[in-house]
Amino acid sequence: MKRILIVEDEPAIREFEVINLKRVGYETVEADCAETALKIYDEDTQGFDIALLDISMPGMDGFTLCKELRRRSLELGIIMLTARTQEMDKISGLMMGADDYITKPFSPTELNARVDSLYRRVEMQQVKVQKTVSDEIKLGDFVLNLRRRTLSKSNKNIELTQVEFQIVEYFFTNPDTALDRNDILTRVWGDSYYGEEKIVDVNIRRLRMKIEDTPSSPKYLITVWGMGYKWCSEA
Questions:
Q1: Which end of the chain offers a freer environment for a tag, N or C, measured as fewer CB atoms within 10 Å?
Q2: What residues form DSSP beta bridges with 80?
């Protein structure tokens, strides 16, 4: 069964999320704070597909919880709940390792659509690992292992979330080709994605911090102004 960890300190909002996600087939596990959520995650034996995290909670906040969960798993799908007026919350959550965000207040339709979209991506990647035939793609100092879902640079491993891996895989199968933001969005998040195009830019920024020697002056993952991005194989 599809399993989701819901972390929300406000009972009414948590109940709203649980009711609506159960209706569309998710097994929900609840936590009213980040500390409890980590305990549940660490002691759970079945595993979770997705974690839905509120940002503003007493004690440990959602950003720190996101970071801790991402340390424990690169495959877990993570969605942050942000306030409509807090633009930096969205960016900060993505930079901490979240895959997506939902802005409060949100409807049952949006909640289900965003969670389903992320679940399909997580599930698709698991199936893709099992069906992979070609093991590696090499570009310069980088090696992308499709079976193990890893990226290395000069024989040093670079930890990637499942979304980051999908982005890199798209670039590695289209080296030295300018890829439009919308094409990246559709390829990685799907054509039914409910969110905003800027999620691509934030993930590119996060990737640069991991792969570039000088992230502010990238030589591998470069911007193609007015269009999108390109991976330079001869950098």
A1: N
A2: 53, 101
Q: Which two tokens stand for residue 68?
A: 């801790």
Strand partners, 228: 180, 224
Residue with tokens 């996060």: 206
Architecture of domain 133-231: Orthogonal Bundle (1.10)
Nearest CA-CA partner of 175 in 112, 109, 229, 110: 229
pTM score: 0.78
- The three-point CA angle 66-68-74 to 5° equals 80
CA distance 29 to 3: 8
Q: What are the tens digits of pLDDT across the range 91-114?
A: 888 888 899 989 888 999 999 998
CB 106 within 8 A of CB 65: no
Domain segments of the chain as ranges: 2-127, 133-231
